[in-house]
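Course assignment 3, question 2. Fill in each field.
Student: A.L.
Task: Predict the tertiary structure for the chain below.
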Amino acid sequence: MRFLRLFWFQFKLYVSNQYFFWLTITSTVSIFILQYTIAYANHGLNDSIVWIRSAVFGLWASCTTAAGSIGYQRFQGTLPYIINTRYDERGSLVALLLPASSYGLLAFPLSFSLAKVFSVSIGKIDFKFILMVILLWVAAATMDILIAAFFTLTPNALVYEALINIPILLLAGVFGNEKFSLALMNILQYFLPLTIPIKVLLYPNSSINILAYIVSLILWILLILIMVTRINDLARKKGSLKII
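Answer field:
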């Protein structure tokens, strides 16, 4: 219950920031319009990949803002008050980072609404689809934590966060033709947690390799533990991060 209160507090702060609030909306709408224009010209409005790809793009655009979250709190001078409480500091930091991926879920209903308005094929929305969206959110939230932890090592996180947007989506196979994307996904599905959910969402006939998803999640969790240990050493033993 304490964690939920912390999360809700951080979520309200997150959406009150106009940049964060509009980033997901503008990213989703802009990529949807671009894809719609191409699909319309090629008579491809019967392909649901148009709105799903836009939703994935909008979600990840929101997730990238987590890269500078810890650094921004450090810049404001509020980070010591977030982690030096009676509540577990790891839980406090997770509550700080989760709003980015959580708010990004808005991209799905937004893109869905745009598809309805512009008469783009919706495809099949079933339990499998919803499950993949949930797995996509879990993957994105996990990657957010590692990325945010890594970016605490540089004071320029807010500048660099844009650099992780498109490259990650390219590696996850969001863009490109089906043959190329599936070949890339089959290779990287064991390393990028986003890959399996995106693969099934974009190409519903694809098989769900749950083992690859679990392996990739474990890999990123291990990297998180290593990174957190390193950051803890720099912050508490050497005091070089100016966190406490």
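Instructor remarks: Residues 210-238 form the longest helix (29 residues). The chain has 13 helices and no strands.
Grade: pending
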